[in-house]
């Protein structure tokens, strides 16, 4: 049996790092090598492929590939994302601003929270409710979506996030909204919370 090649990459804001090593038939690591190259922002995969080529490794010989990136956290930290609209369960549009779970000093009355990533005027609500057990308490009223999308278009929204209460337990309502947004506005980038983390 030939040596197996295992590769791990990390795409950062400035550099793309690659660590690769070979494992022999007995499972012992034969060699560990690293590569650091420039990140290619417009096409992130190019930096990874350049690193693999520079390491003189053939993609078909890679047995295991792990990928990590700080691109998303960098965009959030630097607040460089696109104008995003949020669709959530009626009555919960202000949870982002109220959020007390990440308050570093609970008894510091002078603590000032950072502003939310989606401003209030770009957060919209739909009537629906799923319980924490996944039971539908209030059916989804999909009819309100057309007005929401129209207002998002008027505000220059470039991406839409759908985050409904307890979608981890039953994502049916999120899926319905997601499908309808894609049908109605196919050019927009849209994602639902159950796709990211359940």
Walkthrough of the structure:
- With 198 residues, the chain is an alpha/beta fold.
- It folds into 2 domains: 4-76, ATPase, nucleotide binding domain (Nucleotidyltransferase, domain 5, 2-Layer Sandwich), CATH 3.30.420; 82-196, no CATH class.
- Helix content is 25%, strand content 30%.
- The chain is built from 6 helices and 10 strands; from the N terminus they run βββαβαβαβββαβαβα.
- A 4-stranded mixed beta sheet has the order 3-2-1-4.
- β9, α5 and β10 (189-192) form a beta-alpha-beta unit.
What is this entry, summarized?
With 198 residues, this protein is α/β, with parallel strands linked by helices. It contains 6 helices and 10 strands; from the N terminus they run E-E-E-H-E-H-E-H-E-E-E-H-E-H-E-H. It has 2 domains: 4-76, ATPase, nucleotide binding domain (Nucleotidyltransferase, domain 5); 82-196, no CATH class.
Summarize the main sheet. 4 strands, mixed
Helix percent reads 25-40%
Number of strands: 10
Contiguous runs where pLDDT drops below 50 for at least 5 residues:
none
Number of domains: 2
The percent range for strand residues is: 25-35%
State the end-to-end CA separation: 39 Å
What would you call the structural class? alpha/beta
């Amino acid at each position: 049996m030939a040596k197996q090649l295992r590769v791990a990459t990390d795409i950062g804001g400035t550099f793309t790092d690659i660590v690769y090593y070979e494992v022999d038939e007995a499972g012992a690591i034969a060699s560990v090598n690293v590569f650091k190259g420039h990140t290619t922002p417009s096409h992130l995969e190019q930096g990874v492929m350049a690193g693999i080529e520079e390491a003189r490794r053939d993609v078909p010989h890679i047995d295991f590939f792990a990928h990590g990136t700080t691109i998303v956290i960098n965009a959030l930290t630097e607040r460089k994302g696109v104008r995003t609209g949020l669709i959530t369960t009626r009555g919960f549009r202000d949870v982002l601003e109220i959020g007390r779970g990440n308050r570093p000093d609970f008894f510091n009355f002078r603590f000032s929270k950072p502003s939310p990533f989606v401003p209030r005027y770009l957060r919209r609500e739909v009537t629906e409710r799923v319980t924490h057990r996944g039971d539908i308490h209030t059916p989804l009223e999909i009819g309100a979506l057309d007005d929401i999308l129209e207002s998002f278009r008027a505000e220059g929204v470039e991406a839409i996030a759908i985050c409904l209460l307890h979608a981890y337990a039953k994502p049916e309502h999120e899926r319905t909204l997601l499908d309808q947004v894609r049908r109605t506005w196919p050019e927009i980038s849209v994602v639902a919370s159950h796709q990211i983390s359940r």
